[in-house]
Structures are given as structure tokens and as C-alpha cells.
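mind reviewing these C-alpha cells:
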Amino acid sequence: MSIKPRQLTATVLICLLGAIAAHPAAGQSDLARQAKQHAEAAVGQVRDACATDAKSFCSTVTPGEGRVALCLLAHEDRISNQCVGAFFDVADRIELAISNVARAASACEPDAVKLCSSANSKGELVQCMQQNKSNLSAPCSSGLADIENRLQQVQPQPSSVR
């Protein structure tokens, strides 16, 4: 089985998930905490589904920063269908989430310019948008509510393998 057409996308997304889950600033708001929980669950899903493959093909790889995921994908022609399926499942969910976030970001850009032009960093911008939540336009509020609702509807499953 070959996964080359989506190998780069899956790898990048899994690596990003790991970085999001490990980032100290990821837990600052309810939405960020929920996103972090989902990222951790997705990494755990791949870890669980690929545990045997990781042991067989990547036991000498130092875990962290997506190295085991990259090792698994380097052995794409030999990893199990279960592991390949987990990569695809997680990649599909992440692509949908990124699409939702991109739509919300597009809808909120005018609000960010109008309400938070003095923000000097992404952190300040997020804080400003949260402080101005009651002043956001309907499209922006709707986009953010959609993301929050999706995160609440799909509760992450904890990983059994650490």
C-alpha cells in the first residue's frame, strides 16, 4: 500500500499536532484547551494504532518533534493498514479543522483590524479578540461559535499508549 500522495500532508499535520499539544501557550483559553485536547488525542490515536509498527521499524528513533511519525512514513511500504488508516483519519479531521479555522479567520479579519489594530503579537491579538467578543461582527461570531461547537461535539478519546 502506498501513501505517497498524502504523505507530506499527513506528516506535516501530525508534526503540527505534536507541536500544538506540547506548546505551553496552548492552554490559555477554553477554546485553546479544547483544541489542545483534540491534538493530544489525535497524536495518541496514531501512537496507539502504530505502536507495533513503531516498535518494529522505529525503535531506535528518539521520540518527539514528529520523528517517529516521519520514521513510520519512511517505512510506508511495510507499515500496517491500521497505522496507515490512523494517519489518514487524523489527517482528514485536521484538514477539516484547518478549513473551519481558515473560514473563521477570514470572517474575523475585518474585526481584528477594527478592534485590535494595536496588537503587536498573535497572543495579544487573540487576547484582544476574546476581550471584544461581544463587539464581534455576526460572521466572525458565527465562525468562532461553529469551531467551539465542533470541538464540544467531538470529544477526544484519551490515548492508552504513552
Observations:
- The chain has seven helices and no strands.
